[in-house]
Request: fold
Amino acid sequence: MLRRALLLGDGTARVIAAGEETLLSSKRACPSCGRGFPELDPRFFSFNTKQGACEACEGKGVLVELKGRGKSAREVETPCDDCHGSRLSPLARAVTVNEKPIDELFKQSVSDARQTIMKLEFEGRSAEVARAPMKELLLRIAFLEQVGLGYLGLDRAANTLSGGETQRVRLAAQLGSGLTGILYVLDEPTIGLHPRDTSLLLAALRALVDKGCSVLVVEHDSETIRAADHLIDVGPGGGSRGGHVIAAGKASKVLADPKSVTGTSLAKGPLIPKVRRPVGKGPMLSLKGAREHNLKNVSVDIPLGRLVSVTGVSGSGKSTLVREVLLRAARQALKLETDKPGAFATLKGIENIKRAIEMDQSPIGRTPRSVPATYVGIWDELRRLLAATPEARARGYTASRFSFNVAAGRCPSCEGQGALTVEMSFLPEVLVPCEDCNGMRFNDETRAVKLTGFDAAGLLNLDIEEAAEKLHPFSKVAAPLRLLADLGLGYLKLGQPSNTLSGGEAQRIKLVAELGGASGGPTLYVMDEPTTGLHRDDVRRLIGLLNRLVDRGDTVVVIEHHTDVMLASDWIIDMGPEGGAAGGTVVAAGTPEDIAKVRGSHTGAVLKKELAEAKQLRPNKGDVPLFR
Reply:
């Protein structure tokens, strides 16, 4: 009878029982208000589709507002009031599974979401419908955990992921693709990965190989190198000094080859400083009550005038603590320009430092006019030396004549850039060498002046190693050049455009500029994984430079996973114990030897192994001094 009533009523029927009237509908509509709903489709639950995105923010989760005017104008993002940052439409948020909407699941980390999904229970037809998607869902989440990303939030924006995290997300997607016969190329997938999780990544790569795929990895990580089926060692140096295959074959064979720089470096094993700087009696920078993101009311003491490493598994809160809270709070207290610090209670000891700087891997300049010689300050000195030559004095040239920024001496066609920008329709613009000066930057009259046989263009064309040798009589020039060469940058040219430098090269040039310039007083330097992209030999050179900064009275705080940096540190602050919600606390703080004794510290377990290896390699010689 009810079925017939719904048929006659076009899907709507009134039922009167015990004097009460109830309106029923067989359609996807509310019988009371008449609001209808379309048949549910997977597109309704994706904020990347028109059907699923919040109309107010277009699926971004935030509204962008321009504040300020002119050069001070900047975008400040605010959460969308309509979807509260979920990015989804009201329909998507209204649908629930076991009374839970999808946006609640998105707010969880990968590992927490797996626990939530595993607790879901279905019966009857619902169980049949859920069986296939549940299996696929748990499998894909397992792949994310397998590559060490269990701490990531499911709704984490892609542009907030590090390069290593992005690669591992893509790797997890490939693990679930089921494709075979594919060549995968990965560039340093261990970036940002704690040594504890390297084995998980290697297992994931091995799974791809076992499925019939090939995996080509560019890596500096020692565990990854040793795990390779076939190893190709390129060198022997960098830049013009590289480009040769030094050795190739099984990893054990290549690492035993005396010509292999990589093999020689790994054979040395971990090198431990013979003497560490004492910690405890000197001044401290004390941060109390840090509560940003996953930090759980964290308090830390940073010993000033020391090399400090902040360690922990990915997502444990290292970057939040150091970059978003400590650095910004220090800059704010010093009245320096900064973004708003993350939540914290107090910061004491700031009177002991004058500056707080983050040394990142951003470019040293935006145009080809910015080159290593200008950034470290030696081009100013070389211009003065060129202007002091008899030829320049006879012509009435001053130091400004040899500047890229002065029209009199530079090439008028490229304006001293050595290259011209060519607009390409529908393609990125390209730089081509200037035809008038052949990339020399200066006009012929300027190039008539020479210093030790080199004109201005010739000086810029020297590589750093060669320049240090040719210009050794000029101490103000030779000293920073030798420092750059000691850091493994001897292959770079003095005039190499900034847009051709890697992040690691740019960072090391910045460090040399800091060390070679006049000290602005005790400085807090913050660095986030400065060993990214560095060979182990270059890492040791980097540690040497960091120690030189510390020896002159500065404080260096590095966020690091590289064991050589950990072992070279005077003090370690280990975060964790895990990532995401399971992190955000200080697991241990102390010397590397102290951390190695702490049970429950993943960093401690790694350091314990490294210290034991160092002792085994040199049982009777004691610790080998690293740089001091």
Notes: The chain has 23 helices and 21 strands.
